[in-house]
Amino acid sequence: MAKEETAAGQQELQEAVWQYTGWGVLLALVLASGTVIGYLLWGDAPNLRTQLQEASQKIQAVRSERENLNYEISRLKRANEKLQRDLDAAKTASPPADGGAAAATGGAPAAGGAPATGGAPAAGH
Q: Residue 117: CB partners within 8 Å, gap ≥ 6?
């Protein structure tokens, strides 16, 4: 009888081990399949990838536009500086804006050394 009891106890123990092993395997399969399904649906994130690609293209376009505008600004600044230098040079090279009125009233002589009024002094002065 002791042999039957130990055999029955061993059989019961073996069934319990198989039952818990089966539950463990089932739990592992459920977790693994959930992980795989979750990765396929959300882990790879296909729509987030497309959004990232679109955002990267927009950023690149904005950077390119910014570079173009910076180049245009620097080109216009250089043109403005050149025009300002030309204007300053033209102001210094041209006669005074009053049309030489100082020379006509007996002021400084003209470039030839003679007065601009023809050499005769004004009659009322």
A: 104, 106
Q: Give 20-35 pLDDT, tens digit per residue.
A: 999 999 999 999 999 9
Q: Which residues contact 103 (CB under 8 A, 6 or more apart)?
A: 109, 110, 115, 116
Instruction: Say which residue the tokens 């002791």 belong to.
Output: 2
Token code pair at residue 36: 């795989």
Residue 55 to residues 41, 62, 65, 67, Cα–Cα distance (Å): 22, 11, 15, 18
**Residue 108 gets which letter from DSSP?**
S
Task: Give the pLDDT confidence score for residue 71 in this predicted structure.
Answer: 97
Q: Check if the beta carbon of residue 64 is closer than 8 Å to that of residue 70.
A: no
Q: Identify which of 69, 49, 45, 68 has the alpha carbon closest to the alpha carbon of residue 57.
A: 49
Question: Cα(7)–Cα(9) distance, rounded to whole angstroms?
Answer: 5
